[in-house]
Design a protein that fits this description.
Keywords: Endonuclease, Hydrolase, Nuclease
Oligomer: single chain
Order of helices and strands: HHHHH
GO molecular function, one term: endonuclease activity
Distance between the termini: 16 Å
Strand content: under 5%
Largest sheet: none
Protein name: Endonuclease-reverse transcriptase
Number of strands: 0
Structural class: mainly alpha
Number of helices: 5
Shape: flat
Length: about 70
């Protein structure tokens, strides 16, 4: 989770890779879990909120500090 905040704040190839889309058809079967999906599920925030919060280091640290205790701010 902390690494995601780092990636969002810095313009890098990792950030472009993380937010990029792949052309082509989807495979058959159940969708695979994604890292961003896990972050969204764990933080209980929408992806746009997660992205915006990660840009503010202080707010992101508050969110990641309270993940295990069920008191994550929204």
């Amino acid at each position: 989770m902390k690494y995601y905040g780092h990636l969002r704040r810095h313009g890098s190839i990792q950030k472009r890779t993380l937010e990029g889309k792949i052309d082509g058809r989807r495979g058959r079967g159940r969708r695979r879990q994604t890292w961003l999906g896990n972050i969204q599920e764990t933080s209980q925030m929408k992806m746009c909120e997660v992205s915006e919060t990660a840009l503010d280091r202080r707010r992101w640290r508050t969110v990641t500090a309270h993940l295990g205790d069920g008191m994550a701010p929204s």
